[in-house]
Amino acid sequence: MKIITLLVIGLLVTNPSFAQTKAEPYSQEVCQAIYGAIGTFLALADGQWKQKNDDKAMMYLTASTNYAAIYETVCSD
After folding, report:
1. In the predicted model, what is the mean pLDDT of residues 6-21?
2. Are 71 and 38 in contact (CB under 8 A)?
3. Is 38 helix (H, G, I), strand (E, B) or coil?
4. Exposure b/e, 14-51, CB count within 10 A at least 16 = b
5. Which one, 21, 59, 67, 72, has the greatest CB density within 10 A?
6. What's 14's DSSP letter?
7. DSSP assignment, residue 25?
């Protein structure tokens, strides 16, 4: 019963109408800050990888990937 309830809630929360929403482009300053954050997270991930700290490296790499997806969505022409 708990699984069915969670499934129904999950389906209600993930409304497909959000997929058709067009994102407005961000300002140039915000896009530059996002682009800089991508580089920062990649540098942090590389440093942690070289120190053999795989968990932190993956955390920073995931953050950079998420920022890159945001950048591509709202900063690309």
Report:
1. 59
2. yes
3. helix
4. eeeeeeeeeeeebeeeebeebeebbeebbebbeebeee
5. 67
6. S
7. P
H or E stretch including 31? Answer: helix 28-50
* Angle at the Cα of 51 from the Cα atoms of 55 and 64, rounded to 5 degrees: 50
Q: What is the pTM of this model?
A: 0.66
Backbone angles phi, psi at 23, to 5 degrees: -85, 135
The one-letter code for the residue type at 32 is Q
For 60, other C-beta atoms within 10 Å of its C-beta total: 20
Can you read off the two tokens belonging to residue 47?
């440093």
27-41: per-residue pLDDT in tens? 899 999 999 999 999
